[in-house]
Description:
Blueprint: H1 9-20, E1 26-29, H2 38-43, E2 51-54, E3 66-68, H3 73-86, E4 90-93, E5 105-109, H4 117-128, E6 136-140, E7 148-151, E8 162-164, H5 170-203
Parallel strand pairs: 3-4, 4-6
Antiparallel strand pairs: 1-2, 5-6, 7-8
Helix pairs in contact: 3-4
Amino acid sequence: LHSTLGRPKIEVMAERLHDIDPTLELTLIREFLQPERADALIAGSPLSPNSSPIGGAGSPPFYDYVADCIDSIACKAALVAACHRHGAPVISALGAGNCLDVRRVRVTMLDQTQICPLARELRRQMRKQGASLNYPVIYSDEPRHAPLPHQPVGGDALGRPRAVNGTISYMPALFGVMLAGVIVRELLGKFNQDADATIHSKSS
């Protein structure tokens, strides 16, 4: 949206979520996640100086589920590996760039992915860290077109030369909706299991 150009994504998203449910308690952490920070983030260490609690007490977050939507492979692998180490359920959205066919988007385990270049590199990084590849991801098995040549990214202190992968408007939204669907279904399943266990406990 033109009205939000140049604004931090977390602030825009927080406004959107509070517009849907004003009672939500959110903790916003405005930082570029570096690999060395992943363990502290997932373990629930004190928040970074750039974090801000909104609607809550601001205590460190504890995660029912982690939705990984990071672009950087190194940071993505570090976050997922940290989730595995600390027992936090995690799902990753993989590469939507250079994809057009919505029928080729899949939910599977990372070690079952095919064709997706980002998945291939993520598997390599995860193996280097000794992390499991047996966790859910959203990916497309559509053959990719070659990206444009590498070029610098301007106006970003953390920017670096990178290949330009065009992304059609609807594809990231589809990845996000599918990712959310997996999380909601799994959390509902856990809730139902806990409820059943409570009922059985009361009956016995």
